[in-house]
Amino acid sequence: MRAAAIAGIGLWLAPPFVIFDLLKSEALVPLLPDYQAPEFEIVALYPHRRHLTAKVRAFLDMLVDEFAQQQRWPGTSSAS
């Protein structure tokens, strides 16, 4: 899908965080800027344990921080 959209031979409805680099470089441009795509959920699966390892906890914290800042991605409704 990514290659087809970049080549101009297709449309791609993708989350802004997936195409952030392409929007920033203007390799892709939004076609329907007022269109509000349905929300989606991101799930992180990990083994159930009483205590998470420091690596897993750090990774989960990083994911939360990154996705909480989604307003910095162009094409989102909360972008300024």
Q: Please report the distance between the alpha carbons of the first and last residues.
A: 28 Å
- SS-derived structural category: mainly alpha
The coarse silhouette is: elongated
Radius of gyration: 16 Å
Percent helix range: 25-40%
For the sheet with most strands, the description reads: none
Strand share of the residues?
under 5%
Task: Give the quaternary arrangement of the chains.
Answer: single chain
Q: What's the total number of strands?
A: 0
**Low-pLDDT regions:** none
SSE run: HHH
What is the typical, i.e. mean, pLDDT?
A: 80
- How many distinct helices? 3
Essential attributes:
elongated; 38% helix; 3 helices; 80 residues; mainly alpha
TL;DR of this structure?
The protein has helices at residues 2-7, 16-24, 54-68. With 80 residues, the protein is an all-alpha fold.
What does this structure look like?
The chain has 80 residues and is mainly alpha-helical. It contains 3 helices and no strands.
Layout: helices, strands, pairs:
Blueprint: H1 2-7, H2 16-24, H3 54-68
